[in-house]
Amino acid sequence: MSDNMRIRLDRTVCDGFGVCAKHAPKHFSLDDWGYASLIGDGTVDEADRGDVLRALFDCPVHAIIEITGDEFNGATRSEPTTDETPVFEAHWGFAQ
Ligand code: SF4
Questions:
Q1: Is Iron-sulfur set as a keyword in this record (predicted)?
Q2: Which end of the chain is more exposed for a tag (fewer CB within 10 A), N or C?
Q3: Is the minimum distance from the CB of 5 to ligand 1 under 6 angstroms?
């Protein structure tokens, strides 16, 4: 299994600021109204990691989320059953 960073984009919160496409145009495209779509399946090559992280940190509405585990393969988010950290929680401070 690859150790590449993986991301998803929550288009329900995207507010069309366009910052992501500016920082990482290989991974984000904008529609005619400026709302973002993910290009590809969310896998980020190591060479693009810095650009994508900058997009992630600069997105004003935190619509870009680093994902881990089975969520990337289509699994749905599950509620934690114990006091352990949720498996699919973003790694970054603003989501914790
Ligand atoms: S930076 Fe965030 S809000 Fe702006 S277009 Fe990209 S995902 Fe949407």
A1: yes
A2: N
A3: no
